[in-house]
Amino acid sequence: MNINLTTPVTVEKARELKAGDLVTISGVIYTARDAAHKRMLENLKKGIALPFDIKNQAIYFAGPAPAKPGEPIGSAGPTTSYRMDAYSPETIKLGLTCMIGKGARNKAVVDAMKKYGAVYIGAVGGAGALLSTCVKKCEVVAYEDLGSEAVHRLEVENFPGIVIIDSEGNNLYETEPQKYRK
Length: 182
Fold this sequence. Notes:
Blueprint: E1 2-6, H1 11-16, E2 22-31, H2 34-45, E3 58-60, H3 88-93, E4 98-101, H4 107-116, E5 119-122, H5 128-132, E6 135-142, E7 151-165, H6 172-178
Parallel strand pairs: 1-2, 2-3, 3-4, 4-5
Antiparallel strand pairs: 2-7, 5-7, 6-7
């Protein structure tokens, strides 16, 4: 099914999405890679608030390249998501409902997605320049010292993806290869 998904993504919206659904995302998404995730959760343990309200948000696992003159962002391809697996169960528990990246996720992440109602959307690796055309505005909101791994707030239109793992734990990385095995 083709779905136009507008952020924020409530738990109810996340639970409606099914593995295999093609989506185009419009609205606000945040970028954060492993260094930003680590800092966010370490700061939270110290009583320092997250740099944005994570509830019902979408985090794109990406480290955008610097923008060319007149452009809002440079190439913005997805980062391999397993690098966030150590942090994702906690961010999901805090209210994160949508993760965007590439590659498989571990059991703890999938279990948290099922328990709290979150989805994992795949973005096409190697298509960062194309994906960046969906970004209409980009601003650093936290951890500027991390360079490309800073937390960015992106305003996107029709950002394409596919639901890889849904809130029931259905996982294309498990179901699809079976169709082609002899």
